[in-house]
Amino acid sequence: MDKLRASDRIAARALEFLILTAARTNEVLGACWSEIDIAAAVWTIPAERMKAGREHKVPIGVRGLALLQALPHTGERIFPIGAVAMLRLLAPLGYGEFTVHGFRSSFRDWAAEQSNFPRELAEMALAHAVGNATEQAYRRTDLLEKRRRLMGAWSDFLTRPAPAGVVTPMRRSDHHA
């Protein structure tokens, strides 16, 4: 994330926003200013742009809001870039073996391994259907405020400095035990 933030390219901002929101590439590429409610800190992705065909509200954390507010408002689309622009950023940053979509998987792994948030909350943050048909029919809430806390913890994880590791130099020994 530090390397990404060091870039001044719009594709870097798009990729950072994608990672912070755990959104899909096409959702970020199609994001419009009219979908963003800065006061409520919510990005509402319309149903027609969602894989499942249902509107999805994405809580936007402090870093995401700062990122958006620093961008120029030159057109309706927030990130006027092509489909491969974010992917092309990875190799020069030293992460050419990764994919953009893999950051959604990274979010899901983090939620499972590094947090105590319920599985269903992480799945809802990824805009996945949760539960069977009966459970879905009775669910009347999108758990936005709980997802806001989840995404805030994710943002905190992404923006905290990496811990300094202790490196023990290895010396090659000419003696065999």
At a glance:
By secondary structure, the protein is mostly helical. The protein has a single domain, classed as Intergrase catalytic core (hpI Integrase, Chain A). The chain has helices at residues 2-6, 10-21, 25-29, 62-70, 85-90, 102-114, 119-125, 133-138, 144-159; strands at 36-37, 42-45, 56-59.
How does this model look, in words?
This protein has helices at 2-6, 10-21, 25-29, 62-70, 85-90, 102-114, 119-125, 133-138, 144-159, and strands at residues 36-37, 42-45, 56-59. The model is unreliable at 173-177 (pLDDT under 50). Strand 1 and strand 2 form a beta hairpin. Strands 1-2-3 form a three-stranded antiparallel sheet. The protein has one domain (2-159): hpI Integrase, Chain A (Orthogonal Bundle). It is mostly helical and 177 residues long. It is globular. The protein is built from nine helices and three strands. The chain starts with a helix and ends in an 18-residue tail after the last helix.
